[in-house]
Design goal:
Layout (H helix, E strand, L loop, with lengths): L2 H24 L2 H14 L9 H14 L2 H13 L5 H17 L2 H8 L8 H9 L10 H18 L16 H37 L2 H13 L6 H9 L7 H6 L1 H10 L9 E3 L2 E3 L11 H19 L5 H18 L3 H7 L4 H20 L12 H7 L9 H24 L25 H11 L6 E6 L3 E6 L7 H5 L5 E6 L2 E5 L4 H11 L6 E2 L6
Parallel strand pairs: 3-7
Antiparallel strand pairs: 1-2, 3-4, 4-6, 5-6
Helix pairs in contact: 1-4, 2-3, 2-18, 4-5, 4-8, 5-8, 5-9, 8-9, 10-11, 10-17, 14-15, 14-17, 14-19, 17-19, 20-22
Length: 536
C-alpha cells in the first residue's frame, strides 16, 4: 500500500472514531427532547410555572442540555479510548471539572483582581468580549478538547508501570491523575488563547447567522453530502451545539429560557438569537438549522421511495416494495433516513446530489419564512409533535404544507430522472434475489446476519476492528480484496460504503446494536478488537 493510502486510511479511521464518539454524546439528547416536549405540551404558556409536572419534566430535560460540556467530555474520552474503559470516562469528568473551575469567569476575575459587579460601560463590554462567561457546564468545545485529551492520556498511559512504592497508582489508576495534571496545563493554555478563540468563533457564528436563509441552506446541503462518509456529525456540532455560538438545538429545546434571555439581551453577544435593528429576535430564528429537514424526512424521501418502487421492474416490485416501505416508515416517524438514502446513493449518485440540493433549498425556504420546529433526535413525526407547543415553534404547521410540496417535487424529479436516464435504482439494475427481502427488523435472525456479514468481510482473519455508531457498523479490515459487498447486502442491510481501502461501513439502520452484539459474540474468541479497542 502506498504512503498516501496509509495516511488516508489513518485519517479516515481517526475521523470516523471521532464521529462515533460524538454520537455517544448526541444519543442522550432524545430523552431531553422527550421530557421537555411533553413538559411544553402540558404547560405551553407558563413553561412549568403553572404545572408542577411540567416543571419537573422541563427541568429534567434541562439536566441533559445544561450539562452538555460534561457529557461531551465523558462521551469522547470513553469513545476514543482504545478499549472504552471506565477509567477514561472518569478522566474526562475530572478533566472537564478542572478546566471549568480554573478558567471560569469568577476564577479569572480573581486572578486579575477584578470585581465584575463594579464594572460599567466600556469596561464591562471589554470584560464580556473575552468570553469567560462561556466557560460553563454547557461549553461543548471545552468538552470536546478535554475528551480528546483524556482519551489520549488513557491510550498512552493505561499500561504504564511505576516503581514498586507507587505501584498502586500504575496502569489505569494513573490515567485520571495524569489527566488532572494535563488539564491544568490545558487551562493555562486556554487562559491565554481563549479570548482569541472566543472572538474568532463569535465572529464566525455571527457571519453565518448574518447569511440568514442562505447560510442555513448551505448547511443543509453540506449536511446531506457528508452522510456517505459519516462525518456529518462534525458539521452538525457546529450548528446544533455551542461550538461557535449557534447552539440551535439547545436554545430551541430551552424555549422558555431562550425567550427570557432575549428580553434582557443588550447586544449581539448576549442575544441567544439574532440581533436585528437593536433588538434580540429568537422566535422564527432559533430552530432555522433544524426546521427545513422535517419536509424532507417526513415527505420528500418517502415520495422518492414511492417513485423508485413504481420504476422498479414488475418482477422486482415485491422485494423493492418491502425495502422502500420499511425505509419510508423509519424516515417519517423517526427521521432515520439512511436506509432510504443508501438505496440510491451509490447506484444513482445524480439522484443523491439532487436530494442534497433539495434539502438545502428546503432548509433555506423554512428559514426565509421563519417557520421553525426543532428536534432532539431527528426530524421525524415524533419530534415534530413534541416540539409543536414549544414557545419557539413558529408556524410549524407550515412545514407540513411545505412537506406536501416537496413530496410532489421529489416524486416528479425522481420518477422522471430514473426513467429518462435509465438510472439503476433498486429493482432496475441487478435483480434483487429473495434473500434481499429480509429487511432488518426487531425479529430478524441476527445470528445468521452476523455470520454472513463476517464472511462478507473476508472472515475473522481479515478483520482488525469492529465498532458501531447510530446506524452503521464501522469495520477496519486487513485486506480490502476479500471483502464481498454483494454478500453483505444480501443480509438486508441498507448498504455498504468504503471510505478508504481498509475501512468498511455497513449501513444497518436502527437495529445496528443487535447486529453488532451478535458480530461481537461470534468474534469474541478471535484477535479482532471490539468497541474501539485497538489490536495490540
Amino acid at each position: 500500500m502506498s504512503k498516501g493510502h496509509m495516511v488516508k486510511d489513518k485519517l479516515m479511521m481517526a475521523l470516523q472514531r471521532f464521529g462515533k464518539a460524538m454520537m455517544g454524546a448526541v444519543a442522550v439528547m432524545p430523552v431531553a427532547a422527550l421530557l421537555m416536549g411533553v413538559g411544553y405540551w402540558i404547560d405551553p404558556e407558563g413553561w412549568g410555572a403553572n404545572s408542577a409536572i411540567a416543571a419537573v419534566l422541563i427541568k429534567a430535560g434541562g439536566a441533559v442540555l445544561d450539562n452538555l460540556g460534561w457529557i461531551f467530555a465523558i462521551a469522547l474520552s470513553f469513545g476514543l479510548a482504545r478499549d472504552s474503559n471506565g477509567a477514561a470516562a472518569l478522566s474526562g469528568f475530572l478533566g472537564f471539572g478542572t478546566v471549568k473551575l480554573l478558567i471560569s469567569a469568577g476564577t479569572v476575575a480573581g486572578y486579575k483582581g477584578i470585581d465584575v459587579t463594579k464594572l460599567e460601560g466600556d469596561d464591562l463590554i471589554a470584560w464580556k468580549a473575552h468570553g469567560w462567561d462561556a466557560i460553563n457546564d454547557k461549553n461543548v468545545l471545552i468538552g470536546i478538547l478535554v475528551g480528546i485529551l483524556a482519551a489520549w492520556v488513557y491510550n498512552h498511559f493505561h499500561k504504564t508501570k511505576l516503581p514498586d512504592f507507587l505501584a498502586f497508582f500504575s496502569g489505569r489508576r494513573l490515567v485520571p491523575i495524569m489527566t488532572s495534571l494535563l488539564s491544568i496545563v490545558l487551562s493555562g493554555i486556554l487562559y491565554i488563547v481563549w479570548p482569541i478563540i472566543y472572538n474568532l468563533l463569535f465572529t464566525l457564528g455571527e457571519k453565518i447567522q448574518n447569511m440568514g436563509p442562505l447560510g442555513a441552506g448551505i448547511y443543509g446541503f453540506v449536511n446531506r453530502l457528508l452522510i456517505p462518509t459519516g462525518l456529518h456529525h462534525a458539521v452538525n456540532s457546529i450548528f446544533w451545539f455551542d461550538v461557535i455560538g449557534i447552539d440551535d438545538i439547545n436554545k430551541f429545546l430551552h424555549g422558555g429560557e431562550t425567550i427570557a434571555a432575549a428580553k434582557v439581551a443588550t447586544d449581539a453577544a448576549s442575544c441567544p438569537g439574532q440581533w436585528v435593528n437593536g433588538a434580540c429576535e429568537v422566535i422564527g430564528f432559533v430552530g432555522r438549522y433544524q426546521a427545513g429537514f422535517f419536509p424532507i424526512m417526513m415527505f420528500g424521501l418517502p415520495a422518492a421511495a414511492l417513485a423508485m418502487f413504481l420504476r422498479a421492474k414488475s418482477t422486482q416490485k415485491k422485494v423493492v416494495g418491502s425495502l422502500m416501505f420499511a425505509g419510508a416508515l423509519a424516515s417519517i416517524f423517526t427521521g432515520v433516513t439512511e436506509p432510504l438514502e443508501f438505496a440510491f446513493m451509490f447506484v444513482a449518485p445524480l439522484l443523491y446530489l439532487v436530494h442534497a440540493l433539495l434539502t438545502g433549498i428546503a432548509v433555506a425556504v423554512a428559514a426565509a419564512f421563519h417557520w421553525t420546529a426543532g428536534f432532539g433526535f431527528s426530524a421525524g413525526l415524533v419530534d415534530m409533535v413534541l416540539s409543536a407547543r414549544n414557545p419557539l415553534a413558529n408556524q410549524w404547521y407550515m412545514l407540513l404544507v411545505m412537506g406536501v410540496v416537496f413530496a410532489a417535487i421529489y416524486f416528479c424529479v425522481f420518477y422522471f430522472l430514473i426513467g429518462a436516464l435509465n438510472l439503476k435504482t433498486p429493482g432496475r439494475g441487478e435483480d434483487l434475489d429473495s434473500e434481499a427481502q429480509a429487511v432488518l427488523t426487531g425479529n430478524s435472525d441476527y445470528t445468521s446476519i452476523a455470520q454472513r456479514i463476517i464472511a462478507g468481510l473476508g472472515g475473522p482473519s481479515n478483520i482488525d476492528l469492529v465498532d458501531y455508531c447510530a446506524t452503521r457498523l464501522r469495520v477496519t479490515v486487513k485486506d480490502h480484496l476479500p471483502v464481498k459487498e454483494a454478500e453483505i447486502k444480501k443480509t438486508g442491510v441498507a448498504g455498504v460504503i468504503r471510505p478508504s481501502q481498509k475501512s468498511v461501513q455497513v449501513i444497518v439502520g436502527p437495529q445496528v446494536q443487535y447486529v453488532y452484539d451478535e458480530v461481537a459474540a461470534q468474534l469474541q474468541n478471535s484477535s479482532v478488537a471490539l468497541q474501539g479497542e485497538q489490536p495490540a
